[in-house]
Amino acid sequence: MTIWIPSLELDSRSARYRQIAAAIGDAIDQGQLAAGDRLPPQRTLADALGVTVGTITRAYAEAQQRGWVMSRVGSGTYVRDTASHEPPFSVHVADDQSDVIDLSLSFAPPHPWRDECLRDALVEVSQDPAAIAMAAAYQPDIGTTAHRQALSQWLAALGFPLHEVLAVTQGGQHGLDLCLRALTRPGDHVAADALTYPGFNAASRHAHLRPMAIPLDEHGLDTDALEQRCRRQVPRLIYVTPDQNNPTSAVMSSERRQHLAELAERYDFWVVEDAVQYVPAAQRGPSLVSLVPHRTLQIFSTSKILSGGLRVGTLQMPATLRERIGSLMRAQSWMCPPLMAEVACRWIDSPRYTTLLAWQEQELAARQRLAQSTLADLEPRSLPYGANFWLPLPEGRRASEVQTLLQREGVLVATPEPFCSGSDPAPQAIRLCVGAATSRARLTTALTTLRRVLDEGNTSPWATL
């Protein structure tokens, strides 16, 4: 057993169990706790810190929810071995020849043209001496003027409002990390939907920020609840995905968007609007960039339209942040690789791009209809052109149990735990990505398997003694 006692001064700024859980995460990051180390017994740690055993129980549960530790019945709580256990924020890749149908991650539906468009763009660049010279040289920190103009025109064509400054990023996750590091300091509070993108949770933890989970419903983030929280503790920023919450597919109503803009003005916090989960312009509400431009940064990327492997994204921001973001870019990598930005710009300028995007919207709509027809009685939540499908489970079924049974059948789905931004219990639901399957036939097979597992009732592999 590892005799590890955190060095921390408990205060009233955050719940004690959260401070202890955060200390566990910090100790793992700093190498004080290694994979396989056993944490002290709960009573031992409670006595050492002068808190109740219940506080330690909640702290260990919080650490387990965030993927840092795992409990073994009758043995104790151990630091997770990420080399032998699947982390909650991970990537599975299953090809069409695999027995596994992976619906756990949000991918654009496969199409041969994606590879062909990438190949054609690379060939064009290779035959253009000026492009080769540009790609081999240092460029401005936020991207070349030509790339920024091309990406701005692309966003405008997709129906997004343009902001004062656009920076080229290495994908949406990079843009999110830039926002957190530019606008916050360790210990700051950051707000998000109670269920939100796991990349935000991961980036917040590594920036040593304090999560503030805001409830959401079918109308998106509950801005009345946010207002109540602001009266006690104002967050430094709020991260929102208003047009398609990930994982629940909830869409934030226009009234709540307006209310959020008013709260940002009144309480002086930043808004980070994530639009990476692409839906067509007709399906989107008013952008927060339009409602409160001087307080909003918007993240977008090519991942859900072109290809996730390109790692090209955009970060739109007020002009007041241009130098701060540029400085961060230089400190991290000096600039984003101009070669990949050039490839992306040539792809979106190709004749096939428009046809491929139209096909994608129609294909996702067809796949959503398949999922709805199979599972409609369970009242799932999805968008007609969205990639994700949120399925509340029948009474008495647990997400971990259903996930395990499906995995045995060769179907992978996501459970809510990685999406939890706070410490409240995760709902019993699963998220499917209808776009991830390599074909409609494979999706149909996965949906049929899911329907059968649910209809068979609770056949949990776990036994209680």
What is the terminal-to-terminal distance?
25 Å
Count of the separate structural domains = 3
The global form is: globular
Helix content: 40-55%
| CATH class type of the largest domain | Alpha Beta
* Beta-strand percentage range: 5-15%
Treating each run of at least 4 consecutive H or I residues as one helix, how many helices? Answer: 16
The CATH topology of the largest domain corresponds to: Aspartate Aminotransferase, domain 2
Mean pLDDT: 90
Strand order of the largest sheet: 4-12-11-10-9-5-6
Unreliable spans = 83-97
The SS-based structural class is alpha/beta
Cα Rg: 23 Å
**What is the CATH architecture descriptor of the largest domain?**
3-Layer(aba) Sandwich
For CATH, the homologous superfamily of the largest domain is named as Type I PLP-dependent aspartate aminotransferase-like (Major domain)
How many runs of DSSP E, i.e. beta strands?
16
